[in-house]
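Module 6 notes. Inverse folding takes a fixed backbone as the condition and produces residue identities as the prediction. Think of it as a translation problem where the source language is geometry and the target language is the twenty amino acids. Below is one complete input and output pair. Work through it position by position during the lab.
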């Protein structure tokens, strides 16, 4: 592992990362390495995640502040309570991981060109799913997959990666069920990575990176 400059590191084949709080002002910590399951798992346990375009080197991030949701603070609107108690949607867990990540990659997002979920990323997270580490929530309407999310389950902490919705409220439906499940199981928080207005409306909040890393290290071994 070598420094690219005073703040950003070039990773080698060695399975290691610099301390997450060494990231620069934009949250960029390191460049390079690979997307092996072992490296990805080490990254998430260290408060680091990959985020890069298909034509760039792998970029590793640890932003400050960090967006998180404490499951007990999930915010459910009156209209969503009605949807949750109704029969419009059907929820499954870990039944269609590949379809969820494909949809997250393909869905058009306002102000964004292309996707960071490259073919190599898909393959890496599929491997983690086969190991029981990457998980998905699927939302169905009339037999069709209309929403969902996936992320990394560290035990006590869930690291959200991406979600998609093809119809109104489908991703909210998945996220609320995730939060309620994790609260019942005693999970401490969901890592939402960076600020997102949609997640803020559901109760997510920004906390200092230092606090985030302390919370993570207390729960993840």
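Target side of the pair, the amino acids:
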């Amino acid at each position: 592992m070598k420094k690219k400059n005073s703040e950003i590191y070039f990773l080698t084949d060695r399975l290691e990362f610099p301390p997450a709080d060494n990231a620069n002002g934009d949250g960029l910590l390191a460049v390079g390495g690979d997307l092996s399951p072992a490296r990805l798992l080490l990254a998430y346990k260290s408060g680091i995640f990959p985020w890069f375009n298909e034509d760039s080197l792998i970029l590793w991030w640890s932003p400050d502040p960090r967006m998180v949701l404490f499951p007990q603070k999930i915010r459910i609107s009156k209209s969503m309570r009605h949807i949750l108690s109704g029969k419009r949607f059907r929820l499954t867990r870990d039944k269609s991981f590949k379809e969820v990540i494909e949809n997250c990659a393909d869905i058009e997002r306002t102000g964004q060109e292309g996707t960071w979920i490259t073919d190599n990323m898909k393959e890496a997270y599929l491997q983690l799913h086969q190991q029981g580490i990457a998980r998905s929530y699927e939302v169905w309407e009339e037999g069709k997959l209309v929403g969902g999310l996936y992320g990394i389950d560290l035990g006590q902490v869930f690291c959200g990666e991406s979600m998609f919705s093809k119809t109104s409220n489908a991703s909210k439906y998945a996220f609320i069920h995730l939060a309620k499940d994790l609260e019942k199981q005693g999970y401490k928080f969901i890592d939402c990575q960076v600020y997102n207005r949609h997640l803020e409306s559901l109760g997510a909040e920004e906390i200092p990176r230092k606090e985030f890393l302390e919370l993570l290290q207390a729960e993840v071994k």
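Reference fact for the lab report: The chain has seven helices and twelve strands.
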